[in-house]
Structure prediction request, 247 residues.
Amino acid sequence: MNLPVVAALLLAVFLTSTLSGVFGMAGGLVLLGVLLLILPVSTAIAVQGAIQIIANGSRAFFSRAFIDWRILGFICLGLLAAGVILYLVRYSPDLVVVCLAIGVMPILVWIPKDWLALDASKPHHAFVCGLLGGGLNLAVGVSGPTVDIFFIRTSMDRRTVIATKAATQVISHASKVVFYWGAATTLTPFEWAAIALAAPFAIAGTSAGHWILQRLTDADFRRWTRWVVTGIGIFYLLRGISLLIWR
Prediction:
């Protein structure tokens, strides 16, 4: 990475952290897309995880009073199970698979509530949320829409949704960094310094997103979440198809 690339990365970190601060997801989807343009897929997933730990960690801190710790515990159990499975099969990510998988994820947020009544407030649903969401986060780098279908259909208000999802993502991204640590060690000291420099930009973006969130209604929050994630998914799907054609 040269200086112009680092500057673009820092701007992307701020903007995507703001996006995640508002919707509790979507920012990680965009940030991973930026990183995939400049880094190998395994390294990009690890770096995105490191940056997202800061962004999600600050969001969880700002909303810590609203975290539902019971839900978080069951989700972590599911995440642990997913990590063990992927480790045992020696999973390695592929760029085309990553793009196509992320591209089809937004379909989940449009499924009618009556078709798939998932509720993260129920222990067994929370475990499945961790298993599927955590597994996808490890496998393709993001899992926001998958996790969202377990939260957007609950009776929790937007602040509890954002806070609990943020805490979940901190743990999930940390496990991703550990899982791809071998790829992360290929980064140069300059690149690690750029990642460290991204920390205040992530926190500033999260703070800006938190401010915007407080001015949204629950109805607006749910409606805009679907459209934002769908737009990002279409971009990934088209990129995945183009990579598949020219492979």
The CA atoms of residues 88 and 141 lie 18 Å apart. Residues 3-246 form one domain. The mean pLDDT is 83.
